[in-house]
Amino acid sequence: MIPSYTNVHLRFKLNGHHYSFDDLMEVAYSFVKEGEPYQRELGVFLLDWLDKYEYIIVKTSGSTGKPKRLKIKKQAMVNSAIMTGDFFKLEPGNKILSCLPSNFIAGKMMIVRALVLGLDIDMVEPSALPLIDYKKKYDFCAFVPMQLKNFAKYLESIKTVIVGGGRVSNTIIDLIKDKKPQVYETYGMTETVSHIAVKKLNHLEGTNTDNHFKTLPDISVSTDDRGCLVIDAPKLSDDKIITNDIVKLHSNSTFEWLGRYDNIINSGGIKLYPEEIEFKLRSKIKQQFFITSIPDDTLGEKLVLILEDDENNIDPSIFDVLDKYEKPKEIFTIPKFIETGSGKIHRKKNLKKLGLIK
Q1: How many other C-beta atoms are found inside a 10 Å radius of the C-beta of residue 356?
Q2: Span 230-248, mean pLDDT?
Q3: What is the pLDDT confidence band of residue 358, given thresholds at 50, 70 and 90?
Q4: What is the pTM of this model?
Q5: How far apart are CA 252 and CA 214, in angstroms?
Q6: If both were cysteines, with which of 28, 74, 174, 273 could 5 make a disulfide (CB 3.0 to 4.6 Å apart)?
Q7: Cβ atoms within 10 A of the Cβ of 108, count?
Q8: How do 228-232 and 220-223 pair as beta strands?
């Protein structure tokens, strides 16, 4: 029998306490009225989850355009939770840690997994370095890259870690390569109800498939005529999901992510992928930065680097890791980047702030 969103698993616990459906309603109201900001977000989500409707309204991060409000079926979220549980072999009673905000899909799905799979979830305030009891052992946890970097030395207390919300740098991969937990990078978005594919980041076997994302059960992938990923996940969406992510497809269940179609730069006839260039530079530049382009009479588009700093102190030798056409033609600085509500760099708004686009 497939679990339903109308039920709360008998083994479900929140911060060490078991709650029935009705009890959880009361706790949610209490969080909304008296809780800390992160608890209020959790309370609002729980009230939405426990109401009579078959869907919830979620918002996208806005990192690749204007934030959108989407209707997501609750049963699709249940199905996603089951897929994750099957893939990572999560069992009722397993202890999990959530330190993600509950107003975005990744944080919502942590609580849904606990409700559906009967997990014992500890909810802590989202921060760059979550404050937890380091003596506790956890079976599963989700981080964003910054949290994973800051938390790396404490990972021994967690069995399995997933990280999403941004590409994981080589610096972070080096920090976790010898750590005991299994660490996976995830691929997904609000429309796919959290992740639909994962990629191992440590304990690798040295094969050429180490940099491939592998889809979860009952999900297949293809590409459209732009080379962008198309996701067929009937348990998550009634329609195929057409993305703007350019990928290299290896099978109907494995792919490499190359970058966003929206961000491709055509400089003098050469196609350049900003995300690939950023990945090469991430261990060389300590400040936040991103690669983009501005109009150029000769090249059409000129590759530039935008740096979060008061001035440009970049040593040109760091660009030696790049191919000839990948090297920035110019560097611009901004004291503080404009970010989305989920903490991602808002490229267009920062370019407007610099006066580089209208």
Answers
A1: 16
A2: 95
A3: confident
A4: 0.85
A5: 9
A6: 74
A7: 27
A8: antiparallel
